[in-house]
Amino acid sequence: AFADALQFCADPAAGAGVAGLLDKDRAAARWKQLYSANARASKVPPDAERLRMGPDTVYLAAVDRWGNACSFINSNYMGFGTGIVPEGCGFTLQNRGHNFILKEGHPNCVGPSKYCYHTIIPGMVTHEDSKDLFCTLGVMGGFMQPQGHLQVLCAMADYGLDPQAALDQPRFCLQGVDSAIGAESAETAQLLLEEGLPQETQDGLRALGHDVVVVTGWQRLVFGRGQVICRDPSTGVLCGGTEPRADGSVLAW
How many helices and strands, by DSSP H and E, does the chain display? Predict the structure, then answer.
């Protein structure tokens, strides 16, 4: 997944078409690679050309009684961002341009009037049939964000966990991926596993060829920092969860 993201996520005018990335046959083929004898990512997706089109972060969410919601992330990126403070202002400019790649012909190659790949993902999920709000969610943490969103959302949608239980679950993190390097970075990335994951799971991932490292204690901050608000469409009841690995809170009014 990260090899694809680092190859195709870019300015809409230069990146891959969403329809191509969501194609069921293509997804099935990529899925099979997860369980091959060697599960480590290939350097560049084989259909890269075909799919081309012609810790300084804060997350907050709010939901009202009617199901209106706001999911918001603010990030300078890399500490103080660019380190540039506009004259007369009390803030630094963000440094998301760091996520461009210096590779000519790549969809995410740096260039004028372009949006770059970035990891800011303030999430909002609705029920497919009614379009009612299911949840707002955000899992901060650079390239952990898409990984954290996947794990927390799957815990709620697929396994029926409440927001707090979903956030409390041990996580994994593919560390070392970098949009400034490209899809090749996914090949050498380490798979970090949070303490609490079964030994059988750890051994199975190692058997698939992953470079597994178990992370404990304060170092677990690498697994992101999330907040979630879920809404029951039939009752309007709101249920929130906050990150156990960092500061956060759930407030009602």
Answer: 6, 9
Q: Smallest Cα–Cα separation from 208: which of 36, 29, 45, 31?
A: 36
Whole-angstrom distance, CA of residue 188 vs CA of residue 41: 8
Q: What is the CA radius of gyration of the chain?
A: 19
144-157 pLDDT, tens per residue?
A: 999 999 999 999 99
Alpha carbons 106 and 10: distance in angstroms, whole number: 9
pTM exceeding 0.90 = no
In this predicted model, what pLDDT tens digit does every residue of 209-250 receive, in sequence order?
A: 889 999 999 889 899 999 999 999 999 999 999 999 988 899
Q: What is the pLDDT of residue 179?
A: 82
Round to whole Å and give the CA distance between 130 and 14. Answer: 33
Longest Cα pair distance anywhere in the chain, in angstroms? 58
Q: Which H, E and C letters describe 209-222, residue by residue?
A: CCCEEEECHHHHHH
Nearest alpha carbon to residue 95 among 144, 149, 57: 57
